[in-house]
Amino acid sequence: MVKGEQFLSKDLTEQMHSVAFPIKGQNSGFGLCMEIEQINKDVDRLSHTGSGYGFMCALHIYPALNMGAVLLYNSHDDGARNDFYSVINQTANELIEKERVDVNSFVEGLDAFNVADPRLKNITGIYLYDIHIIMQDNQLILSTGGGSAPLQMFSGEGGKLVGLIKDRHYLEFFPPLKGQTRGYIRFLTSSGNVLDMCHYIKPFEKEDKPGPNKPEWQKVAGTYHAYAWIKENKHSFEISIENGYICIESKRCREFLPGLFFTPDGDVLDLRGDQPRYMYATLIKEPVF
């Protein structure tokens, strides 16, 4: 409201506060420049964060509770923002009760895969976020750093491969893009959150064929810092050659043009100039700390 009058029309506000192109069961995602999470049928949380070289900010709003908070501070330290999340979320959780999504219902009536189905070989391997899908003891298993669970596979609409970790996750497997051997996975959790774009990284070691291991790659291997981030972010980047492939942060890169690479999740590593560039930032190899 501005001087007692609504600044944005109701339909624009509703678009901002609604998940764009949701899949069935999804209650979180992005609207128009706002992240939305449906806590229950009556309460949504609207949020956004931001940062730059020397500042950070965060915004959380619960319209149904008439509650919200904004944090702005001059630092690149995550500590204050993490404390902010804890306080606002704890306050909201004391006022509301979260609802769960019955992910099992998404595979009702679908045809289950036999473990001998050859299509299952096309989804095994290592994905982002330390996700491993492996055939073990005649059963498909999904494992992460936090544990493992049986993965049941089904044939979904249009022949799409979908999977279920009972009571916890519903998964959709997308076909590979041009030049890739595997597609990505989209997870719907029992809390209604969607984890999107879990891209395939590489096969397991025994199935991994060596890459081209070009001689010119040897000179760029090493530890780097991003020039623009030195003052506020001391994180280093490791460019390595693993089994004949260029990797950054252990992410295997695909060479799109000579010297121009993409990580599995779409970031750019450019080795065509005098100094490497990653995510559009110049990398420097010399020790700076």
Description:
With 289 residues, this protein is mostly beta strands. It has 3 domains: 10-93, no CATH class; 103-207; 215-284, no CATH class. Helices cover 8% and strands 40% of the residues. It has 2 helices and 24 strands. The chain has helices at 10-16, 79-93; strands at residues 28-30, 35-38, 44-52, 55-62, 67-73, 111-112, 125-127, 131-136, 139-144, 147-150, 152-155, 161-165, 169-173, 184-189, 194-202, 222-226, 236-242, 245-248, 251-252, 254-257, 260-262, 268-270, 277-278, 281-284. The protein has a 10-stranded antiparallel β-sheet, with no helix packed on it. It has a 9-stranded antiparallel β-sheet with strand order 19-18-17-16-24-23-22-21-20, with no helix packed on it. The N and C termini lie far apart (49 Å). The model has no long low-confidence stretch (mean pLDDT 86).
Taking the sheet with the most strands, its summary is:
10 strands, antiparallel
- In total, how many domains does the architecture comprise? 3
Approximately how much beta-strand content do the residues carry? 35-45%
Secondary structure category: mainly beta
Q: How large is the count of helical segments? A: 2
Give the % helix. under 10%
Strand runs, count:
24
Global shape:
globular
**Radius of gyration (Å):** 22 Å
Secondary-structure element series: HEEEEEHEEEEEEEEEEEEEEEEEEE
Q: How far apart are the first and last residues' alpha carbons, in Å?
A: 49 Å
Strand order of the largest sheet: 6-11-12-13-14-15-7-8-9-10
Mean pLDDT: 86
Unreliable parts: none
